[in-house]
């Protein structure tokens, strides 16, 4: 039998539901994989193997007919999402001694109720808000970043340490690591999954995200979390023949490196060779302002979101002018960017913040209409393959546009860069067409794989 | 000396900062007032007097030069806002055994850091989402509702049990009780105060709200929470002479009862007599759809928000067709409306939900532009005075428009209905003009008071 840690969630779930694999043995296999690999990858912020095994044995006690749709499936959770049985520390010195919360974040409640085994908490950048990486490394090359801020979740799934993990995205924190690690990454439509219990940076942008090594596993999560389109997805697969597939470079295309450019041309060729009608499309010119608007919304909302945390650090001084010493103390304990947000160092006006809200809101239905003319729309996920070093988790420019448009995004692996590292492309759709995006993405991912795809060096 | 419980927050704060009143003695005065009144009003969901006094004594230990801007000021907190030292139960059987959270909600962190004394948790309707009231009564007439869902916070402030309290608003949950109880109620611009740690119903609408018996107390809170307009507010007061004050009936005016109609005419006459240029304005006709859009946004977002809670109730059954028995069990433990949201009983389509988002987003800047032509805009707060009975907390029609437009709202008491119960009007402004709204509202409130005003029967 295949080592259980190599299975997809759906495969493992089927075995566990039938009783051909106990949850305990499944957990043991994952834990031994983690033991073997994680000294180098460092994906976990919190992991308690005896506790995991205890939970696994409890799940094994559930009679077959009462087992949930995610029975025994192990899930890693980014350490900015609250869990009732594990601490949540947000990679921040402010919360370094925090314990478990009294209640799980809303999506965790639902996943647990469906039978999932919450395995542990995965590493993140501070508050999932900065690009200074944790020490986590890319499982395909330990000299490189796995991306961020969902660093641990992406690295753990790519490294076969867990089949599914939760991330979050405010700029490109789910999609970019998906591309850097060569796995599927899904950022649902804003609002399609509850954000209750997720650390807050930007209410307009923050979205829970999901990693898996197959789209089927993501579809299973979408079902449990009731992410439903208006239109039912056909039972049959998304065949390429005659499908209209748009390629949308966006106004940040100038940033694309050779790896992304090659993936772009490769994907067009492959899909056309399968009978799709491939077409490059341009966004209307006012979409060019979205990057600036995204930055302004984050600055405006960060101003509010991090005030509480800063107050924890400087209970008296925040209300008065900070002395130089106070300021340095706070900067040591809190990333300067967060500090700058609270103090509105960028001098962002409310007028500019509102212009950003209204500009993006105006373009959302424009995008929906444009995208709905195609069966699928592809766009770059990243600038290029994962950069060397773990200090910076990379550039979110290609992702943040779609995050603030609040549309569903799916990173599809399929290509590689000059150094043999993975590069994906992102499938985007109109808002609330998540099921469609997963349906099309599964087929497109299969085609990329059949045509060479991304060759994982792991395992 | 005046009984401390009768003081406004600003008055009590000045005395405590100077050391002329200890926080302990202030707390004792409030607790004895509560002891005297609350058997009838029933404003508190949680109150632990010995713990309050212990916190008060701790605050008294802070040396004068280190006391925060809210030193010793007592604040009641609606029981849907997380507190680290008191349970949060959301008036739901699901959370009836919940304890304190590991961390305070973000605004509570900031208020505590400024020296506030968190007094206790106040009653709410279930999840602040339904209109079935708790047993809390109106302090001016115990046969009537104080409104909701911020029932306890509004009743406690009106009844001199606490000078300041926090509510929330998704429809009219802050403003309506403000009117029913004859106090100032401020719902800030959406996003101006962090929502982290507030129970989630509708991310687009949920906003923390504040009650006080004077606008000065609300301004003090706004300062601590850094709710700042682009334009600095003049030092001088908002004189009526020559000010352009608009009266906006809205498309739900047909619901207005005699009390609100009399307040409307009275306010126009009073302000004109003081030299203001009073003008009735009409919203463009597409604003008529906002009430329907508000309902659709709540249905769409409630579908996501309450899934987790429903999973707590029905760990296995939610993922399959519910049996009749399961359904009845859940309905008993969870308000049927919440259940219907999760199950999308209204058959709301994603298309209709998106149309609601985009429609409201389109009208926000239209409103901002329209409102910015005036020095102040008044609109009804409620249908009429507080109805008899505590079963229903009343009609939110006049408030929900402004909630989903995400604009600042201030209920200004000043009138009374046929039964001598208070009726207020709401001052609304363009988004992120909260300081302006409070500045104008203070002056308009003073004028209403000088011209007769609302005569509180309490004390």
Automatic annotation (TrEMBL), chains A, B:
Pfam families in the cross-refs: Amidase (PF01425)
Signal sequence interval, chain numbering: none
UniProt-annotated stretches for the region Disordered: 130-154
Bias kind Polar residues: ranges: 133-146
Amidase domain mapped to chain residues: 28-438
SUPFAM superfamilies: Amidase signature (AS) enzymes (SSF75304)
InterPro entries for this protein: Amidase_dom, AS_sf
Highest taxon listed in the record's lineage: Eukaryota
Protein name as catalogued: Amidase domain-containing protein
């Amino acid at each position: 039998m295949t080592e259980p840690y190599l299975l997809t969630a759906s495969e493992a779930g089927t075995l566990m539901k039938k009783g051909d694999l106990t949850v305990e043995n499944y957990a043991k296999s994952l834990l031994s994989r983690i033991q073997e690999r994680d000294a180098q990858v460092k994906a976990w912020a919190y992991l308690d193997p005896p506790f995991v095994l205890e939970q696994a044995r409890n799940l094994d006690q559930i009679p077959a007919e009462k087992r949930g749709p995610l029975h025994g499936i192990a899930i890693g959770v980014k350490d900015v999402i609250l869990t009732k049985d594990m601490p949540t520390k947000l990679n921040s010195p402010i919360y370094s001694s925090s314990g478990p919360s009294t209640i799980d974040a809303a999506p965790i409640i639902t996943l647990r109720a469906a039978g999932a085994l919450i395995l542990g908490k995965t590493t993140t950048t501070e508050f999932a808000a900065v690009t200074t990486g944790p020490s986590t490394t890319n499982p395909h090359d330990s000299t490189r970043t796995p991306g961020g801020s969902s660093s641990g979740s992406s690295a753990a799934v790519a490294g076969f340490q867990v089949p599914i993990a939760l991330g979050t995205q405010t700029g490109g924190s789910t999609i970019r690591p998906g591309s850097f690690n060569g796995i599927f990454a899904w950022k649902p439509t804003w609002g399609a999954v509850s954000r209750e219990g997720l650390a807050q940076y930007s209410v307009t942008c923050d979205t829970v995200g999901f990693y898996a090594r197959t789209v089927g596993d993501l579809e299973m999560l979408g079902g449990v979390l009731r992410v439903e389109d208006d239109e039912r997805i056909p039972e049959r697969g998304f065949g390429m023949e005659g499908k209209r597939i748009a390629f949308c470079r966006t106004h940040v295309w100038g940033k694309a490196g050779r790896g992304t450019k090659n993936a772009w041309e490769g994907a067009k060729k492959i899909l056309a060779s399968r009978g799709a009608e491939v077409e490059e499309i341009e966004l209307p010119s006012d979409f060019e302002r979205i990057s600036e608007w995204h930055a302004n919304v984050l600055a405006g909302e960060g101003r509010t979101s991090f005030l509480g945390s800063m107050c924890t650090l400087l209970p008296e001084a925040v209300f008065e002018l900070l002395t130089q010493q106070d300021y340095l103390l706070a900067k040591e304990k809190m990333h300067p960017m967060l500090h700058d947000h609270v103090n509105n160092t960028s001098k962002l006006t409310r007028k500019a913040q509102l212009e950003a809200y209204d500009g993006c809101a105006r373009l959302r239905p424009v995008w929906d209409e444009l995208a709905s003319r195609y069966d699928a729309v592809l766009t770059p996920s990243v600038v290029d393959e994962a950069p060397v070093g773990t200090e910076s988790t990379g550039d979110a420019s290609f992702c943040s546009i779609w995050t603030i448009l609040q549309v569903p995004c799916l990173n599809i692996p399929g290509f590689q860069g000059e150094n043999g590292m993975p590069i994906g492309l992102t499938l985007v759709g109109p808002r609330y067409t998540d099921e469609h995006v997963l349906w099309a993405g599964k087929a497109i991912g299969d085609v990329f794989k059949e045509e060479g795809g991304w060759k994982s060096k792991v395992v």
